[in-house]
Amino acid sequence: APKRRFRVLRWTWRLTYMSALAGLGYMGYGIWEMRNPEDQPEPDPNKKTLVILGTGWGSVSLLKKLDTENYNVIVVSPRNYFLFTPLLPSCTTGTIEHRSIMEPIRNFLRHKKAAVKFYEAEATKIDYEKKVVYINDQSEIKGDISATEVPFDMLVVGVGAENATFGELRALPISIKLTISGIPGVREHGLFLKEVGDAQRIRNRIMDCCETATFKDQDPEEVKRLLHMVVVGGGPTGVEFAGELQDFFNSDLKKWIPEIKDHFHVTLVEALPNVLPMFSKQLIDYTERTFKEETITIRTKTMVKNVTEKYIEAESTGPDGKKQTERLPYGLLVWATGNAVRPVVKDLMEQIPAQKDSRRGLAVNEYLVVKGTENVWAVGDCAVANYAPTAQVAAQEGAFLARMFNNMAKTEAIEAQLAQLSEAQEKAPNQEAREKVFQEIKELHKRLRRVKQIGPFQYSHQGSLAYIGSDKAVADITWYAGNLATGGTITYFFWRSAYLSMCFSTRNRVLVAVDWLKAKVFGRDVSRV
Ligand code: FAD
Ligand code: NAI
């Protein structure tokens, strides 16, 4: 018996060893393949020109699944990378380095079957009648030509949204009807959290506030102001950022700069009666309780109306129902009050009569066609299809369009083949040859019917997840026909593994995992650059 046991052990060891080797080989090949893309056929200008605006969730999900050999594909975006936004709040405190959640669009496009043209530029105007997009190089280095036009046969608008400051058309929860035309001072003094640059600015500002607060002979009131971190907007962006910031203070800042520990304070301001309105009631309560334990102050029913360099003015409703205005001094102000429509989208909406009643973006039909247009589609935050403006929706919309475009190309190819076969049938020398062609035509018609069978877009909600700080997360997960609401540390591990698996590439996954480990072992980096 011991001999047999030894043999089993030896074989188990060999198998483990061999599978590890196979795994390593597979990974190695994957990396080699990634680093050595094959030559691609150039885009075929005789094919229809498909112009895709943006390199965010919607557009990249479309590009991922699109058979690029069927079209002459052109991508235009001021950002030459894809950004995994769900982990962006972690970049504001250095838990994750921003490059770990960026994927260069060039690398990704080089792996498509047929080449795709990419222009790093902003679409400044879409002329629907002329079927032309005007583009502008907004980068620092400009060549002799920095503005030009790109004609299109088909156009996908995936430019996302900009930050709401309420001076523009906005995508707002209907419950707040702001009568004011814009909140003064937000753009000048507040920081947003949408892009990599925003996260870097916030990271620097946090450290600047801490270092300035410890400047020699600083007045105690001024120290308090500088260390007051105010977040406006209790949606998931505001909540996740507030949680990350408090974590940063608890695990690192107060260790390295003990002088600030009695004054550093995070306040979250929300106009509605509670934070995270899209989550279930028990998770809202859980989040509010957790914030209380973490000493983050939540000010609900408080609407910011004015922003100055050193304080915000907010109107709140007291327990007696009376409105009062107060001043909250701040050192850092992060403005996370949702989305507004981009100017290029607004301009397109104005050109199309069918869009005149749309306020929050391009109204699309169930096939994501921009209403009132032909051959123009919209995905993600700039499209209004009655879904929340989330990455989940944008990604599913992009994938749907890719399937539809692939099918459209297949349909056209089959129809061309059918036309040829009909001709061949007419010219067939005898009955036998005619019958043979007839059978081929029948088969093709069957294929055509199958290919054309693509239903309208249907969103499948997988659930909502948010990190709330102190290694806790909340999750509303769609579970069979019902909903599972859960919050806590286990949910946090689920949040981590879900987002890790959703990262764009293996490279991103490895970098994010290493960043998490680095932050745990060495703490976050508190240098200001
Ligand atoms: P984006 O991803 O914003 O991409 C827009 C693209 O268009 C960008 O590449 C941009 O550079 C480009 N662009 C902009 N202007 C122009 C122009 N004029 N011409 C050409 N290109 C242009 N959603 C979730 O589901 N789960 C989450 O956990 C989550 N976390 C988030 C965290 C943060 C901090 C933020 C800000 C958002 C989060 N979201 C999350 C929401 C999600 O990021 C958006 O819904 C999603 O990015 C929308 O995808 P999109 O393709 O429409 O736009
Ligand atoms: P949001 O629109 O979800 O929330 C903004 C909040 O700001 C609202 O609750 C609103 O009442 C409040 N507000 C507006 N004006 C105000 C004022 N003047 N004073 C005080 N409060 C004010 O915006 P957010 O969080 O930026 O999210 C945008 C989209 O991205 C949403 O669809 C969200 O679901 C999605 N997202 C999802 C995440 C996740 O699933 N974890 C994370 C981040 C964003």
TrEMBL record:
- Which catalysed reactions does the entry list for this protein? a quinone + NADH + H(+) = a quinol + NAD(+); a ubiquinone + NADH + H(+) = a ubiquinol + NAD(+)
* E.C. number(s) listed in UniProt: 1.6.5.9
The top of its lineage is: Eukaryota, Fungi, Dikarya, Ascomycota, Pezizomycotina
- Taking every annotated instance into account, which residue ranges of this chain make up the domain FAD/NAD(P)-binding? 49-398
Q: Which residues form the External alternative NADH-ubiquinone oxidoreductase-like C-terminal domain?
A: 461-525
Sorted alphabetically, the keyword list is: Coiled coil, FAD, Flavoprotein, NAD, Oxidoreductase, Transit peptide
Q: Per its record, how is this protein called by name?
A: NADH:ubiquinone reductase (non-electrogenic)
Instruction: State the GO CC annotations.
Output: mitochondrion
What family does this belong to?
Belongs to the NADH dehydrogenase family.
A GO molecular function assigned to this protein is: NADH dehydrogenase (quinone) (non-electrogenic) activity
Source organism per entry reads Westerdykella ornata
| Coiled coil segments of this chain | 407-454
Please give the first and last residues shown and the length of the full protein: 177 to 705 of 705
